Amino acid sequence: MARPVLQVDNLTVEFPTRRGTLRAVDDISFRIDAGEVLGVVGESGAGKSMTGTAVIGLLEPPGRISGGRVQLEGARIDHLPHDQMRRLRGQRIGMIFQDPLTSLNPLYTIGFHLTETIRTHTDRGEAEARARAIELLTEVGIPAPAQRIDQYPHHFSGGMRQRVVIALALCAEPRLVIADEPTTALDVSIQAQIIQLLKRLCREHGTSVLLITHDMGVIAETADRVAVMYAGRIVEVGPVREVVQNAKHPYTEGLMDAIPKIGGRTEDLAQIRGTMPRLSQIPAGCAFHPRCPRAFDRCRQERPELLDAGASRAACWLHAGEPAGAGTGRGGGERG
Amino acid sequence: MAADRTTAPIHRPGLAGAIHRGLDSDVFHSFKQSKVTMLAGAVTALYFLAALLAPWIAPHDPYDLANISLMDSFLPPMWMDGGDARFPLGTDDQGRGILSTIIYGARASLLVGFAAVLLAAAIGVTLGLIAGYLGGTVDAVIMRVAEVQLSFPAILIALLIDGVARGVLGGDAEGNLAFAVIIVSIGLSFWVQYARTVRGSCLVEKHKEYVQAARVIGVHPGLIVVRHVLPNVLGPVLVIATISLALAIITEATLSFLGVGVPPTQPSLGTMIRVGNDFLFSGEWWITLFPGAALAVLVLAVNLLGDWLRDALNPKLR
Amino acid sequence: MIAFIVRRLLQSIVVMLVVALLAFSMFRYIGDPINQMVGVETSSEERAELRERLGLNDPMLVQFGRFAADAARFDFGVSYQHKKPVSELFADRLPATLELAFLSAVFALACGIPMGVYTALRRDAWLSKVFLTVSLIGISLPTFLIGILLIFVFSVWLGWLPSFGRGETVDLGVWTTGLLTVSGWKAALMPSITLGLFQMTLIMRLVRSEMLEVLRTDYIKFARARGLSDRAVHFGHALKNTLVPVITITGLQLGSIIAFAIITETVFQWPGMGLLFLQAIQNVDIPIMAAYLILIAFFFVLINLIVDLLYYAVDPRLRVDRATSAGH
Lengths: 336, 318, 328
What we know:
- Chain A: It comes from Rhodovibrio sodomensis.
- Chain A: Pfam families: ABC_tran (PF00005), oligo_HPY (PF08352).
- Chain A: One of its GO terms (molecular function) is ATP binding.
- Chain A: It is a peripheral membrane protein.
- The structure holds three protein chains of three kinds.
- By secondary structure, chain A is of the alpha/beta class.
- Chain A is about 35% helix and about 20% strand.
- Chain A has 13 helices and twelve strands.
- In chain A, the strands form two sheets. Chain A has an eight-stranded mixed sheet, sandwiched between helices. Chain A has a four-stranded antiparallel sheet with strand order 2-1-4-5.
- The longest helix of chain A is centred in the middle third of the chain and has 18 residues, at about 190-205.
- Chain B has a single domain (about 40-75, about 85-315), classed as Orthogonal Bundle (MetI-like fold), CATH 1.10.3720.10.
- Chain B is elongated.
- By secondary structure, chain C is mainly alpha-helical.
- Chain C folds into two domains: about 1-70, no CATH class; about 90-320, MetI-like (MetI-like fold, Orthogonal Bundle).
- Chain C has 13 helices and two strands; from the N terminus they run H-H-H-H-H-H-H-E-E-H-H-H-H-H-H.
- In chain C, strand 1 and strand 2 (about 175) form a beta hairpin.
- The longest helix of chain C is centred in the C-terminal third of the chain and has 39 residues, at about 230-270.
- Mean pLDDT of chain C is about 80; it is low at about 320-328.
- At the B-C interface, helix 7, helix 11, helix 12 and helix 13 of B face helix 1, helix 6, helix 7, helix 10 and helix 11 of C.
């Protein structure tokens, strides 16, 4: 097996607060291969963004990685000294944030943003960096880049700004790009364009992508594999087709049922009962059991690890080697 | 009173709830957490007690002419040569005990400070609510005046008002009138911050559904403002009040120091410092430095409380 | 750009008119100007004649117009107390106050901004805690007390610096300066620090809180994610954005230095406008009070105008250039 671009093992992120330590990301493991797009979905607060921020080493104190390891192309990066980690950012891991309107410094021109980034990561001179910047703007589809390079962010629309942000994230040709909700803040009509652009550029440059979103549609369209997160843990991971069409975890099923389908009647849209628990109130056993229509005794007592379930893996006792058939019935009865 | 009866049942559960929440809140927690804040609270409480009980705890009443004697003037603190146990911190040029004058002076400082802050808050909150709720020309006029006033430092406004009052009342106002002039001068120079804050919150609340709903069902606008908007702005108003209490105390001391505040026949830390300043070079440093230290400690304690309150009510700033 | 300046100028003129109206009402309604000018033995006919000659019987609007026109030429009549033209009194004392204010402002900015940046970037360093503690004490100590303490230590105790006056001054024709002599600098040292300390504290705290705010923004996070060096992030991005709001408030603060000079000038017997104004208040010398009010207002308006222009220069969002904003 080829060496993965990113390998995350047992990553745990904690936030100490005065009411106890909160675990935002709880013992998760995943890998991304070269050129692969891994989608991470889940509700807000499930720990998706925190995972991305932890990988690139930008957790805001007091948040910290309290366990596990992160490897980039075989080398550990979770305990790198500040300065080495900084050099790695932008150079080998790029990041795209949710809101293109606030990602750019309003006091500087687009060109300044690009050239300062290019010059940080390469030894190009000012003029070369500028030429490269215009090239990048052309590549991300900014019309008349030679003129627009000297304009300020407020002269650009949201979609155009996100293109600039993508150019910035890709300007040192990183091996991995973390895209944190890259389309959420954009108009629906622009969303598809940006996703297409991201997909095309990454394919052309062989860049791997960690795509974080709550939008199952974006995942289905873009990702090769998908990881579903719930309350800080990965509850299901597998090839995107498999997860979308043949979900193994009741939570994933719920997510899929909640997506409107063309031709389907809106009354048939299922909802998942209740809301995701707060980090301070995660129930014992499987975190999803209070909302799960198929929970049984074991779910309330023991927390499931990721178990093989067909082509995917799911953290659900329904897929345990010896499913307690009687248990399911009893559990259903007790739920009342 | 009628207003009390109608509003009480609505507010009491809120108040009880607020107290309960208060004891478990981040605000209270951060108070217990910070030793400096607790110390500041204790010091402030001590000043309050001393101010309230001044006639009983001060060794003498230094402003009762029957009690003082020029024979006792310029006595150094009791631990120095020539000190007198009757005057632990020494005496001033009139033979008044410094410790007693400090206690009476702190009483005056707190009195003026509180009265001025209350006056400023009353004016500011009222004008802020009116401006925010009515909008239009009224709003524009009030806020323009506020803006112009805000661009001048409070001490200058207070000095001008004081000067005008002197002109109107004729020369040096005596006794209680002088206090009233100072309170009004300081009060009138501090209202702007309240008005701006309250107006801001008022504009935000005004467009919320529940206020709109109250208006639709025909609740009187004044009542809506008092019942719904006012409780929401109490937090920021409290913070401004605490911080401006410190400022008001400084302003009173400054006016008195400049010789346009409390007359020398009345107790005031600022006046004492001014009097003592003349004797700094002749070696009687205690006349100025003890009242100065007393003033600084009081203001520092109140400022610390204000800082803590602001941070606790606005966790984002921490 | 032109429209912006014109609008600002018009607003400034309105503010000046309002202040002039205030000064005029003070002048006209507090006490009787005639009583202040003549002795008790003056007959009522003479008073009436003087009243007529001074135009005090004219319609209010005419009187105000005359007052404003005179004020624009800085003619405020004769001081009740000094029996000299107000403009002459001010001309003597303006340089002293402006030099003091200038030195204090330089001190406040040169120390306040770096200290604010340092405390924001190194939040937990012991030096930051020292700065913050000192700043709290700086805010809590009234200006006059700081002055007295400095005098006590450096004049009474150590005997290093003079406790009053401007030292030797050099007359440059329209301007007398203390900045050309050693004794002038020695005399200016303590007053400038006294006056500037409070502003320095404010600027430091303001820079700190603005900087902390900016450091939390998305574009700073994105700048870090792009791998920029800490120096580029902190000084290239964060500091510049911090300075946008800081400019406004700092500008206003610098304006208030001139007014706060009243206190410092009293403590150090600095022969400036503040001391003159204070004496005027004690003696209800209305022409000086009115003139001072208008002069201070003028400085404020001027500083505000400069601040607006600076703001405009720093923040590109305020520059609406039609050529480019048409694009999307």
